[in-house]
């Protein structure tokens, strides 16, 4: 049975094993969307509510989600103090 890691290795798409497979899928779609016939060949599938989207559109949706998660992480852990705002509470 195919899996995402072996599919990435087979196609030479780089991935960081420390990151979520969601990020791996984003790399795959970004680099190989034109060569992919079936995501199941890579151990992935599209949920029914996203079947209407092309692989390019799915890549864009995933990218937006990753950016939202990155911003939320930054806001939570690296929020810079605002000038004139008391952050001591």
Element layout with pairings:
Blueprint: H1 4-11, H2 21-32, H3 55-77
Helix pairs in contact: 1-2, 2-3
Task: Write a structural description.
- With 89 residues, the chain is mostly helical.
- It has one domain.
- It has three helices and no strands.
- α1 runs parallel beside α2 and α2 (21-32) packs across α3.
- The longest helix has 23 residues, at 55-77.
- The radius of gyration is 17 Å and the shape is elongated.
- The N and C termini lie far apart (53 Å).
- The mean pLDDT is 86.
How far apart the termini lie comes to 53 Å
Helix content: 40-55%
Residue fraction in strands: under 5%
Query: Which residues form runs of ≥5 with pLDDT under 50?
Result: none
Task: Give the overall silhouette.
Answer: elongated
Mean pLDDT: 86
Count of DSSP H/I helices: 3
Descriptive tags:
89 residues; mainly alpha; 48% helix; elongated
Summarize the structure.
The protein has helices at 4-11, 21-32, 55-77. It is mostly helical and 89 residues long.
